[in-house]
Amino acid sequence: MKTEDLLALLEKDELREPHAGRVLWHWLIPALILSALAMAGLLGVRFPMEKTLMTPDIAPKFYLPLLLGVIAMPVALKFARPLARARLSWVWIFPVIGLLLIGYAYLTTPESQRMMDFRGKTILPCLLSIPMFSAPILAAVLTSLRQGAVMAPERAGAAAGLAAGGLGTAIYALHCTEDSPLFYVTWYGAGIAITVIAGALLGRLLLRW
Amino acid sequence: MMHDRQADWTRLLRAANAGDARAYGLFLNAVTPVLRAVVRARGAGLPEADCEDVLQEVLLAIHLKRHTWREDEPAAPWCYAIARHKVVDAFRKRGRRIHLPVEDFAEILPAAPEADPTEQADIETFLSHLEPRAEQLVRAIGLEGKSIAEIGDAMDMSEGAVRVMLHRSLKKLAALRERLIEI
């Protein structure tokens, strides 16, 4: 087939693929519901929820990753368009807030208890759960990015991991009973980092086209 | 002249998005010689037919990814980005690593095809991987220049069904290239 024949074919094809954003809307809500149900079914929500959501010392463990996920999601989506500038430089604000929380907890926790708070009792479940509950969301974001034309597969995958990790962590926080920032900043941060790395590796595999 | 190219491509692609099929044809015909020149310059040593293959891969990608261009963006840099990605990828699959700065695109002069027109680019081999009706449809449009309506009549399908089958066939062709050329 000559190139001009191919052009004749392309000219006649008027159907356009849906935008990555539309695909994301299609998959994100089911993914969030799946993660939330899995968390509730496998681990159980911690009641009363006001304790997690309204106590000043504890609330950041839910709202901070939620905010991270909500901000990172549209940034991740930008990687779908070749000319869109996806900016990730704001991310550093989250480790800074995390360190401030750790500093505050360090000062307000009696010395004898600091190490106990830092270790908690659920490091391993935490490090496994966060990537697990983030996985459906990561799948949704990667699926929508595949619909685009990603120029930087690893960076795009990492951004997808950041968005998914944030939201997945917020879901896990509704179960988790570790309430010291010494614990949750450290290990939630590690869980999100694992999700980001997984996203980057998957991006390299899946966002090629 | 380069500024004209920018403005023209953007204008044509905008019109195409608004449903002007003729503008889309003009856009593709304007883009093709530029991309051919880039592929040929980069693929020095690669047989002409292979260069034409790579070009076809790029054109398919531009077509199938055109929803990733936004109307407020200039069309030329978008084309270059897609083409650069595809060209690098195509040469990588053929065992070569190339460096392709985006400036190459903006500065290059358009090139006409050189190959013997009977030369079979390997999209031909991919056609046989389509299901028979899809292959028949693609050949009828691509090689015989039939219109959507004519094919609908000939194959006893609604025009809508023909359009969907054409679109799916092009996606399939692009995917087949991804899989089959991988060495």
UniProtKB/TrEMBL annotation, chain A:
Keywords: Membrane, Transmembrane, Transmembrane helix. The chain crosses the membrane at residues 23-42, 87-107, 122-145, 157-175, 187-207. It comes from Thioclava marina. The keyword Protein biosynthesis does not apply. The lineage of its organism: Bacteria, Pseudomonadati, Pseudomonadota, Alphaproteobacteria, Rhodobacterales. InterPro entries: NrsF. Pfam families: NrsF. This is DUF1109 domain-containing protein.
